[in-house]
Structures are given as structure tokens and as C-alpha cells.
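Objective 1b. Sequence-to-structure analysis of Sphingomyelin synthase-like domain-containing protein.
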Amino acid sequence: MRREQGERENNAIRREKKDKTTSVVILFSVARMRSEVPWEPLKLLGVVLFSIFSASANWAALAYIHDYVDLNPIEDTLSNLIPQQSWTAYYGDLAALLCTIAMLIMIILHQHRLVIFRRVVYISSWLYMMRAITMVVTRLPPPYNDDQVKCRAQLRNMTELTFDVYYDRFMELAKNVGFQDRTKPILCGDLLFSGHTLLMVVSALAIREYIPTKHYAWSYVSSCVSVIGVLCMLVSRTNYSVDVILAYWLASFVFTLYHSVIEVDKSIRFEGVSYWLWFAQITEWLERNVHHDCFENRFEFLFDLRAKPTPHEMWELERDREAREQAVLDAERRKAKFRSEVDPEIDI
């Protein structure tokens, strides 16, 4: 009799644990359903790896080109009008850091935090990859008046340019996430378009795009800080004027292109000219399961599981899952039909 009673108690405990586990799964599913945005960790991992690669490419490029740049600055209109104010370089770095922190706080508080983080990291990675390429192919001299003091001594002897030298420089940049201590001689040559400006512009654009309406003053503050930071970089002669202009144009263009692609209806997205760009096709893959009609800018707790699902929400959860699967199948059929009309030789 005691054995039967013990078995009944064990069965009751197992059922209770199963019910709790099921409840947690359902709550997470309902939270995801309410946001209409699926959680896709593999895509996020791919974007993060791409960002690490692009950042590493920038650090490796700077570690390499430092010894090959000329130290005689070229003419710049703003530099001719305003004397060099080296003390403002610190505030330029600080502005870039503040803009980044403000953007990260906004992302953490947003209900679609993972999707926004994935978008921002992907856009920034493309921009920094472009920057690494331009740094290597065209080397502008640093704009400082006192380059010999600001820049580290260059190694001209090929026997001194060993792998260990490049490795030490790379690890130093990686340890400081690309920032350099401007109170000491620095590695020079990371010009043509400004990395600080890229960071500040993308941060300001992301905050303006995703901040809830009632917190929109946050956007004005971040934009003002970005402008101040850019001016500090120019006055300190950390960058040429063309560095800032190109960085602003490119950051605005790539950010706008990404959001232009995802705002097009999925059923006709592949018909546009931009779809045939690699950037747009990867964007379409990243955003394939995101329902933009229900993408609402709203803050919420990181794990808000307080609200219990209603029977209607449970029914909606299953219906929306089936609808998403059907929408993907319909889009693939339309895509195949469109391609067969463009090229009749394609066998559907």
C-alpha cells in the first residue's frame, strides 16, 4: 500500500513538472506571437561572426598600413579655416561611446530587441568591411600638423616588419575595440572615411527609427551628441572633412537601403532591381520570417511573462504559425514563376 501511495506521489510530481514546463513554453510562444517576430539564434550568430570578421579586417588593415602612409598632410578646407585643437579628440571618442551606449540601451529595452540588434550589427559590419577595403587600397596621410609626434615611429627596414609586430598591433587594437590612447603616439592611416562618424550616424539613425514616439526626445539628444562628436573629430584633425562626408553618406545610404528592402511586401520584393544585389538578398534572408506590419516600437521588460495566455491567443498562435508557413510557400512559388517568365529555359 505504501508502494502504491509512493507511485501516486511520484506521478503527481512528474505531472506538475510537466505542466510547469509546458506553461513556460506556452508563455514564451505567446510572447513571441504577440510581437510577431520569431527568435532566430542561428541568423544572429551569423551576423555576429560577420561583425567580428569586419572589425578584425579593420584592425589588421591599420596594423599593416601604418608603416606605409606618408606623414605630410594634404590640403583640407576646414583645416585651413580652424586651427588644430587636439584636446577635442577625447570628446570625439566620448561622443561615439555615448551614442553607442544609448543605442544599446534602446535595443535592450525594445520588445523586438534581437531583430533590431541583428539589423544594426549587420549594417555596421557591411560599412566597416567597406572601410577596411578602402584603407588598404588608398592610403591617405594623417591630417595632424604634428604627425611626427602624434604617430608612432614607422618601421622602414623590412627585417623589422615581422609577424610578431603586426600581431602585437592587432591585439592592442582588439583589446581596446579599435580605440587608441591619444595621449600616446598612435597608429596612423585609418582614413578615407571615418569609423567614428559611421558609429555615431548609425546609432543616431537606429534610435530615430526604433525609439517609441513618447520617448522621441531621445532621438534629438543622440543626434546632437553625434553632431558634436563629428565636429570634435574635425577640429582635432583626427579626420579630414571628406572622411566625415563620405562616412555620413555611406552610413545613411546603407541604413536606408536595408530598410527600403524590408519595407517592400514579401510577395513582390524579389521583383525589384535591388533584389539582385548581394546585400539585398542577404537582407531578404535575414528578414524572411519577420512580419513588418506588426512591428511596433514599444519598450517592455526583457522577460515579460506575467500575462497569462487566453484560449483565443492559443488559437491565434497555431493559426499564425500555419499562416507563416503558407506565406513562405506562396512566396517561393511566385518567385519560381517570376524567374521562369524571365528565363523560359528554367525548369520549375
